[in-house]
Amino acid sequence: MYIDKMLAPEQPVDRILLVDDNPTNLQMLLQTLNGRGYKLLIAKNGDNALRIAAKAKPAIVLLDIMMPGMDGYEVCRLLKENQETKNITIIFLSALDDTKDKVRGLKAGAVDYISKPFQAEEVIARVDTQLKIKRLECALSARNRQLEQDNERILESINEGIFGLDNQGHITFANQAAAMMTGWPIEKLEGVNLIALMLDIGKGEPLSSQLLSPIQTALNKGISKTVEDGIFWHSDGHSFPVCYSCTPIMEDSMANGVVVVFRDITEKKKHEAALKQALDELEEQKDKLTHVSRLSIMGEMAAGFAHEVNQPLTAISNYAQVSKRMIASLGIENEGLNDAITKINKQARRAGSIISRIRTFVKKPDHVFDRIDPNKMIQDAYKLAEVDARNNNMEIHLELGDNLPQVNIDVVQVQQVVLNLIRNGMEAMRNEANRAIGVIVQTKQIDAHFVKISVIDRGYGLAEGAEEKLFTPFYTTKTDGMGIGLSVCHSIIQSHGGKLDFYHHPDGGTVFEFTLPAID
Question: Taking 90 as the threshold, does the pLDDT of residue 254 lie above it?
Fold first, then answer.
């Protein structure tokens, strides 16, 4: 039976279930509560009360204790055991006024107790009070649910992984970011000891315990910790770099748990490594430029030195000529003296010729390409290398091909290549037993389009691991080498449309060879 009162649509209607086996009591309750904006429902026994409560979900049940069959205590117990009705507010109505009866009712789940015979004002006041409490509880519950939803949305939108730990280190909360970064589903993380989980996966890592010790410190001592360069482990066993913080949850000056916030810094590490590599390469290039600058200065100094030395050499040659004429004018007949003066003049001119070639070689190139016989170019380079050959007590043997086509080259640059390869060959053979064989320079036409120049030595050969880096700038196996010769040679030959290569001589030593395009 329902007794309704018209209410404004926007106002909530509170349902109140009145349960009593006495019709007179029910009538008094109806008269007392009617017209106060409630929807009133009635039940005359316990079974009927349970059915109506399960269907209507009233806010309050005014429940008589002493009823035939199922008494009020049993009805209360069954309502509280049912998930759908356990939150209904129950107020007992009874003539039982003993304290232990009241206590029994409160233990059964009731929140209040009205003694019979009841006064209307008391019933209204107690019902209104419990309805206010009910509304506040509902509002608070709704607000809590909203806050939980808001918090959940916020936590899920955060890119950082978050673990909430209890005072034993067990995970009480994990957001989606934490699950994604570690590879464990959230439901498998909750209740698991975080440190034990990580240590089990990272047991092959000798420093795994030390890497996780800040979390344990935060749990044990209540001290916040921040780790800029830590490591966590993924469920598949691999580790990944993280930055994380541990903030204790303090209660009564004691740590009752920890919040761990972490971020995967794998990409940051990659960027740092790339930046370091770039900076190292930049530093290396600066060193190379500094080296090249020094070499450029030395080249200018060499040119100046050649110029200055050439003048006294010319003077020596001239004085020798004058001395020879003076001896002749004085009528002195001395074959040995004449021969010595002739040799002085010859050697001075020879030295001047060498200086002249050096000046031509080291001066700033104009990159002038000329048509030239490759054999002529090799012979001129041979003259420049003679001094080194004599200093090393070694010979240079020319094996020049016949009727070679001309090549269009920057003569100075290509001679630089030939000289560098000859000097390298003599260096390799300097302390070898077969140094008497000397360095061999060969020229020949390999087809209609290319001429090949080979420089062959029988020295100690290439150092282990040198082949891959041989043409890399500033790579050298010599204690006093600068590591630019072969790199420069490689660049020069490439700019001429040829190719510089090398291979091991079958009888020991190395063969360097390069090609130059032939002119049709």
Answer: no
